[in-house]
Write a structure and sequence with these properties.
7-stranded antiparallel sheet, Thrombin, subunit H, Pdz3 Domain, 6-stranded antiparallel beta barrel, 4 domains
């Protein structure tokens, strides 16, 4: 069964189950509050409902009246139809979500990007049902955050960000949101886990909670018991699409720098050092003589990028950035992103069995994307060996491909990195990311081995080959037709 990660039913409702209620009231002296009422009273006015609408586009085929002779019955019919249609309003698509005021003086409101994506109109509804229009200051798809601004005489209450890095599993949290459009709803729960990666974006570092997260709570705040925002509720993990008590929130430590950049520049300006990285496994650590399986292994360096200028090479392991340890591969992108652009960052890296130091001038990620530097690096990595006989391009499995295609370490073979349209492979349902384990019952782990087996089959007059293909753990045999070699005419 495939589980469902939803960014459409997101948000921040935490249902207070009886077991929690009993514990909270029975053990007030053990870190559990007797009641959340005092905390909530001051927070409710800062949480808002977000309503956004997008008008449906008029079908292009009806944009112009057909060219018909004047006076014909069809001409009169279409002319009347078009006149009526001019005043016809298309039904708008509506989206409901939650948000919170972060700056009462300037009217800044935070929510999820998916709540207001492609919206033509955005409205903010306060706790007392006062509704005011809002304008979009900026958004960030990578972290699913957006900053709105409202101009109104309505009195606003703001809340502030807290430090999500000090959270511990088991800490109490309180949330206020707009589930199913019901309005300000207060719920409570605990932190279930931290630093979760749900493959939602390049900076996944979610807080997991046992909250019941439902449609309409997207963008709502998660508070600690000091009334500080330590998370923005965003997604659920569910086999059915409904809540099963596994929810995810963007930590404030990640959200605050993004919000600050959007307010200051209207967009994000992330740091970039020009490397592609992969995880350090115990096996890789052993081969590199690393004392521990930690850090980020450099798989490639962008030509003319900051890291190349600093002397980094493929095979180096980045251990520290500006004195902050890189415990895992996933921690480096966030550290780099939060580093000031054009600043000089101190790097500690591992090469040839010892730790070395260098200095890298941090570039801007968004500018690198605009210049096509990231795309070029990615294209260079997926270049493989073309197998024209069956219409695929393959590459020997490495750690980068295993990570990109989620191939376990115990699976051996060659990865398909391209499938030609209308080819035999495409017609038989092969896809990019499939792993060819065997050909004609012979193991293959290099493209050259695959080519030689196909060449042998062709020369021996066989019209097809038998592949053993692994796709996401599901192994199956697949026969593909090949062209047999034509016999040479005797002279």
């Amino acid at each position: 069964m495939r589980f469902f990660i939803s960014a459409l039913v997101l948000c921040s409702v935490f249902f207070f189950v009886p077991a929690y209620d009993a514990m909270a009231r029975a053990a007030p002296g053990q870190g559990s509050p007797g009641s959340f009422a005092d905390i909530v009273e001051g927070l409710l006015p800062a949480v808002v409902n977000i309503s956004s609408t997008q008008r449906m586009q008029t079908p292009e085929e009806f944009s112009e009246m057909p060219q018909l002779p004047e006076g014909s019955p069809l001409h009169d019919f279409f002319e009347e139809f078009m006149e009526q249609r001019q005043g016809m309003l298309m039904l708008p698509q509506a989206s409901l979500g939650s948000g919170f005021v972060i700056d009462a003086q300037n009217g800044y409101v935070i929510t999820n990007n998916h709540v207001i994506r492609d919206a033509e109109e955005i409205r903010v509804i306060f706790q007392d049902n006062i509704t005011v229009p809002a304008k979009l200051i900026g958004m960030d798809e990578k972290t699913d955050l957006a900053v709105l601004q409202v101009e109104t005489d309505h009195k606003m209450t703001a809340v502030k960000f807290g430090d999500s890095d000090v959270l511990r599993v088991g800490d109490w949290v309180v949330a206020i949101g707009n589930p199913f459009g019901l309005g300000g709803t207060v719920t409570a729960g605990i932190i279930s886990a931290r630093q979760r990666n749900i493959n939602a974006g390049p900076y996944d570092d979610f807080i997991q909670t046992d909250a019941s997260i439902n449609r309409g709570n997207s963008g709502g705040p998660m508070f600690n018991l000091d009334g500080e925002v330590i998370g923005i509720n965003t997604a659920i993990f569910s086999p059915s699409g409904g809540s099963v008590g596994i929810g995810f929130a963007i930590p404030s430590a990640m959200a605050k720098p993004v919000v600050d950049q959007i307010i200051k520049f209207g967009r994000t300006r992330r740091g970039w050092i020009g490397v592609r990285i992969q995880e350090i496994t115990p096996e890789i650590a052993e081969t590199l003589s690393l004392p521990k399986a930690e850090g980020a292994l450099v798989s490639s360096v962008t030509p003319k990028g900051p890291s190349e200028a600093a002397g980094l090479e493929a095979g180096d392991v980045i251990l520290e950035l500006n004195g902050q340890k890189v415990d895992t591969m996933r921690s480096l992108p966030r550290l780099v992103a939060e580093t000031a652009i054009d600043s000089k960052a101190d790097l500690v890296f591992w090469r040839n069995g010892k730790a070395l130091q260098t200095e890298v001038v941090v570039g801007e990620l968004e500018q690198a994307e605009k210049d096509g530097l990231l795309g070029n690096a990615q294209e260079a990595e997926i270049v493989g060996t073309e197998i024209p006989d069956i219409g695929i391009t393959v590459k020997a499995l490495d750690n980068v491909l295993r990570q990109n295609y989620a191939v376990p370490q115990n699976v051996e073979g060659v990865a398909i990195v391209g499938v030609s349209q209308m080819s035999e492979a495409a017609q038989k349902g092969l896809f990019e990311g499939d792993v060819i384990v065997e050909v004609n019952q012979q193991p293959v782990n290099q493209p050259e081995k695959l080519k030689s087996i196909i060449a042998e089959a062709t020369s021996s007059g066989k019209s097809s080959i038998l592949l053993l293909v692994n796709r996401e753990g599901d192994v199956r045999f697949l026969a593909l037709k090949i062209e047999t070699a034509k016999p040479q005419k005797k002279k």
